[in-house]
# Entry
Amino acid sequence: MKSITIGFIGAGNMANGLIRGLIANGTKPENIWASDLDDSKLLLLAQDCSIQTGCNSDIASNANVIVLAVKPQAMRDACKALAADLAGREVLLVSIAAGITTAHLESWFGESAAIVRCMPNTPALVGMGASGLYANGAVTEEQKQLAQEVISTVGFATWVDADSDIDIVTAVSGSGPAYFFLFMEAMQATAKEMGLSEDLARALTYHTAAGAAALAQHSKDDIATLRRNVTSPGGTTEQAILQFEDGDLRGLVAKALKGARTRSIELAAETDST
# Structure
């Protein structure tokens, strides 16, 4: 991968994180290209990372892998213009735009185009992302490995079996950080209300969240067993868990994830109608 030229159409936060992850993992900055409508973003990237910057046609001419990182509402126009610039040149296309399906991309680039649809999440910005990937039938095993290597530079990456599975990935990990942020926000606020300082409430909440995730990842026990292990009968944890259960936390989580998946499907339909 170190000798592959990778281009980014769009230089926002997620592209920024991927670019920095690639460089940290040994990709030469001169082998990375980026374009964006905002020249100030490109200038900062060039200054910080010493990558190549230019227009979309420059990327079409030079890159072996092109990451489509523009906003979903701009994808149609960007992809149609890029397809014209490619003029049949074979590249691996990796889309990280929410609500843009493989069928959309194939309609713009052609069914023979090698396309990987990916849903990353914002912890990728600190190298701890969780991403789901789906490849169409034109993607070779070598290209699949290449796509996984690119996305894995910013965290965990795994393949799903169907394009529609990306809508579920979106609901679980794509939107998931916000769910944990909301829970942590509530914990922080209540700790302050009960008398802790803001700094202490924040520190305890952050370290508890990070520690729980690390313990779950490294333990041989499943998540339900870990929960039971810290829930002593008649103790403080049990009392808190009872409040969550009485409030139907599980049902609320299910409703939230299903709502996010439905919205992902709706975004695809909105792209069809525009």
Observations:
- The chain has two domains: 6-162, 176-264.
- The mean pLDDT is 95.
